[in-house]
Input
Amino acid sequence: MALEGLHHITAITAHARRNVDFYARALGLRLVKKTVNFDQPTAYHLYYGDERGTPGSLLTFFEFPGAVHGHHGDGMPYRVIWRVAGDAALDFWSVRLDDVGVPVVRGDRDLRFADPEGLEHELVVDAVPDAPLRADAPDVPAEHALLGLAGVRAYASDARASGPLLEALGFAPGDEEGDWELAGEERRARWSYDAPVARGVQGAS
Output
């Protein structure tokens, strides 16, 4: 059975209210549900995605109040990559994020920024046939909305060591060293490795 891209990505937050404000209000994602971390029921589990909580649109967070700020390092994902429809969407998000005080870095076909706790995001114009996984937000035009997960970037001091596992899961090597691509019948995703710049410390972000 072939995998259909990425189902979801999970991270940690120390501030549920601030987290909701950023992802549901600033980014226009739907707060699909709030449950508990079933391994630790004292912690909230927040789910964001499209209108139906479709696999491939989901970013989730465990809330641990007071958690120290983490540092992304070896063996840790550090950037979530989202699809958008085109350059006009990048223009929209550049202005919108600047208006709410979020610094952005604009490239030719992408836009990078970080959430209040340091988790990086990248919006990319990605020409794939995948159905758009869009949330409805009153102040985000549908043509500029986030359209689902395109991939993840992670740190690895020896990216080759993950090759056998990724191949067993259905990934194939991409065009660039450290890039892996997964293509199911309906969705696609990328997993990319970069050399770590620091030792990783788990925490909020």
